[in-house]
Design goal:
It contains ten helices and nine strands. The chain is an alpha/beta fold.
Length: about 280
């Protein structure tokens, strides 16, 4: 392919992700399992649209969000472990076994096999019926698994360390919820990370930027103009992202499975025009 043909594909984060997927898939035989992480609001969904129409490649995209535990399962954890377990998103609130099963089913699929997996309805805060979920026919060339905490490494001391935000200070003062998350990362999620062939991490400049991005997402969801999010809704967003703050900050500081990196600025633009490889 000529440079002129490559040019449009290499613009922005989406173009760099497209380049990365093409390179990683070509380097391996069989079905390649790719992992992409990135904090809330960084633009993973938009960037990954660039890989769905790669010439000659069939890519199955799995979102970690679609594998949340059901509302009933999370409410049960809220009663038996800690009330904060009811809120989706943190480590321990995903059906990792089902995600791994879906990966293996896709890898073993025949040409006519249809593999189905869930979709999560964030309005009802519950898993949608399987017939309303996702599907893929045949065996893909690559499986791309994306999510905010893909590749996060556990910190066994998190429950004993000082709270880093009001949520931890007032609602988890004894560190029970934090310890539960770290145990989940170390045990349930590690087989998933190990199953991946390679990782790509989209890195925000800092956590404060993540808050701004998440507020923009909320404005879009509510059909509001940029910068017009009501104070009470912004307060809700500020509390919500505290569930993710500790692990997001940790991943930005390097506590993640080794992988290639695309660092972006506050406008979600790549800070360089190339992917930074694994050291």
């Amino acid at each position: 392919m000529s440079d002129s043909e490559q040019g449009p594909q290499l613009s922005g984060v989406g173009g760099l992700v497209r380049q990365w997927v093409t390179k990683q898939t070509a380097a391996r035989a069989g079905v390649t399992v790719l992992a992409v992480s990135g904090s809330q609001g960084i633009g993973k969904t938009t960037a990954l649209k660039e890989v769905t129409d790669l010439p000659g490649l069939r890519i199955a995209v799995l979102s970690l969000d679609d594998f949340y535990l059901t509302q009933k399962e999370r409410l049960s954890l809220a009663k038996t472990v800690h009330p904060l377990c009811a809120t989706r998103g943190a480590p321990g609130t995903h059906d990792v076994a089902l995600l791994l099963h879906t990966i293996e089913a896709l890898c073993a699929a025949g040409a006519e096999d249809e593999i189905r997996w869930p979709a999560f309805d964030k309005v009802s805060d519950d898993r949608a019926p399987l017939e309303a979920g996702r599907h893929f026919v045949g065996r893909p060339d690559a499986i791309l698994v994306e999510g905010w905490m893909i590749g996060a490494l556990a910190d066994p001391q998190a429950g004993q360390s000082a709270p880093i935000n009001p949520l931890e200070e007032h609602e988890d003062p004894d560190g029970i919820w934090r310890n539960w998350q770290e145990q989940a990362l170390a045990q349930a999620y590690m087989p998933l990370w190990t199953r991946m062939d390679t990782f790509l991490h989209l890195l925000a400049p800092d956590f404060d930027t993540v808050l701004g991005w998440r507020c923009e997402q909320e404005e879009t969801t509510l059909g509001l103009a940029k910068g017009t999010l009501p104070d009470e809704r912004r307060a809700w967003v500020e509390r919500f992202i505290q569930y993710y703050e500790r692990i997001t900050r940790r991943m930005l500081c390097g506590a993640r499975v080794e992988g290639d990196v695309i660092a972006v600025d506050e406008h979600r633009r790549p800070q360089t025009n190339r992917i930074m490889p694994v050291p």
